[in-house]
Design a protein that fits this description.
One of its GO terms (molecular function) is DNA-binding transcription factor activity. With about 140 residues, the chain is α+β, with helices and mostly antiparallel strands. The chain is built from five helices and five strands; from the N terminus they run H-H-H-H-E-E-E-E-H-E. It has a three-stranded mixed β-sheet with strand order 4-3-5, with no helix packed on it. The chain is globular and about 50 Å long.
């Protein structure tokens, strides 16, 4: 990812108000998968005038514009990440809700082989694994 969320918004012709810029910066700096309430708390810490409704509208606009990707991990919360990030898959800890990003070359290769075997050229995929931590011995 060589450019910023703000620059991609501007390139798509979105009007970047002060609150939208703050929300975009918060998203750009996030290394997790925040939901709207988390985004609001982070943005509000930088600009107390940003309402929850503004965050909802901005996230919807960014999603519809292809800037953000909406993720749902079965916990009833929509979470978001930059749609232009390098490909990765997700492992969701069912105990804590933590979302762990990973990329495994063997999994990627196997998916390509399966698609080819079925007569398809793979154009993309999403992989979400759900699990609980293994108990540690001793």
């Amino acid at each position: 990812m060589t450019d910023t969320i703000i620059s991609r918004c501007e390139a798509r012709g979105l009007r970047m108000t002060g609150p939208r810029r703050t929300i975009a910066r918060v998203l750009q700096e996030s290394d997790d998968h925040p939901d709207v309430e988390e985004l609001h708390a982070r943005a509000n810490a930088q600009d107390s005038g940003i309402s929850l409704a503004t965050v909802y509208r901005t996230v919807k606009l960014f999603e519809e514009s292809g800037i953000l990707e909406r993720l749902e991990f079965g916990d009833g919360r929509a979470r978001y990440e930059d749609a232009d990030r390098d490909h990765h898959d997700h492992l969701i800890d069912l105990n804590s809700g933590e979302v762990i990003e990973f990329c495994d070359p063997e999994i990627e290769e196997l998916q390509e082989k399966i698609a080819q075997k079925l007569g398809y050229q793979l154009k993309g995929h999403k992989l979400e694994l759900y699990g609980v931590p293994l108990k540690k011995n001793g």
